[in-house]
Design brief:
Elements (H helix, E strand, L loop, with lengths): L1 H33 L4 H34 L6 H43 L6 H48 L3 H39 L2
Length: 219
């Protein structure tokens, strides 16, 4: 019974939080529209920010791979210093991944509000021809948006295995600050290199898709 009550309290808290976040978003969009900035403009800005975030993440993961490579090539030097550098790159990579995920959430939020508003406003048309034209534009925009957001999420998902591999190896180095640990990391480098290669390919697809969507919606 206690477990059930706790679950109900948790679900209730989630519903309240979701309601609060939705209300905040609606208030924000309403305030922006009063100064001439509409959901369409916000969507473009957020897609651009999401694209830039993925470009930054690409650079960071490349930097992390380079640092990993330099560590596995060590023959002696200060292994504690090597660990500190590698761990710093891991933390930066994780922050970049978190930023990409946050940007995607913000894009989905404003896109959902925009499409809901657009669909609702279709009922306001007196002209059937204009309503039909606007409805077709809405469908086409949704198709382009869904393609773009799918590419972004695919790229987002490719970051997870890279971070897991990276974290395991950083943790292993932390617990084994010796030459033998470096030797163990060398066998992992090729795997990490391949994963980051796939990540960069996925991000390039997502970035190209974002640029195409931005160009289309600005027409």
């Amino acid at each position: 019974m206690k477990v059930l009550c706790k679950e109900m309290l948790f679900l209730g808290s989630c519903v309240v939080l979701l309601f609060f976040l939705t209300a905040c978003s609606s208030t924000y969009y309403g305030a922006m529209e009063k100064v001439g900035i509409h959901k369409r403009d916000i969507l473009v800005d957020r897609v651009e920010a999401g694209r830039d975030s993925q470009e930054d993440a690409q650079k960071q993961f490349k930097s992390a791979l380079e640092q990993f490579d330099s560590v596995v090539k060590l023959e002696e030097t200060d292994l504690k210093k090597a660990y500190d550098k590698l761990n710093k790159e891991y933390e930066k990579s994780k922050n970049s991944a978190d930023d990409v995920s946050s940007r995607i959430d913000k894009i989905e939020s404003v896109a959902s509000a925009l499409f809901k508003e657009w669909k609702g406003e279709l009922k306001q048309y007196e002209s059937k021809a204009l309503r039909r034209s606007s409805e077709e534009q809405l469908k086409a925009t949704k198709v382009r948006y869904n393609k773009m957001i799918a590419a972004m999420k695919t790229a987002e998902q490719t970051m997870e295995p890279v971070l897991r591999i990276f974290h395991d190896n950083v943790l292993y180095l932390k617990h084994n600050l010796n030459a033998q640990a470096i030797g163990s990391l060398q066998s992992e480098f090729a795997n990490l290199e391949g994963q980051i290669g796939e990540l960069i390919k996925s991000m390039n697809i997502a970035i190209d898709s974002s640029n195409s969507f931005i160009a289309d919606i600005k027409k």
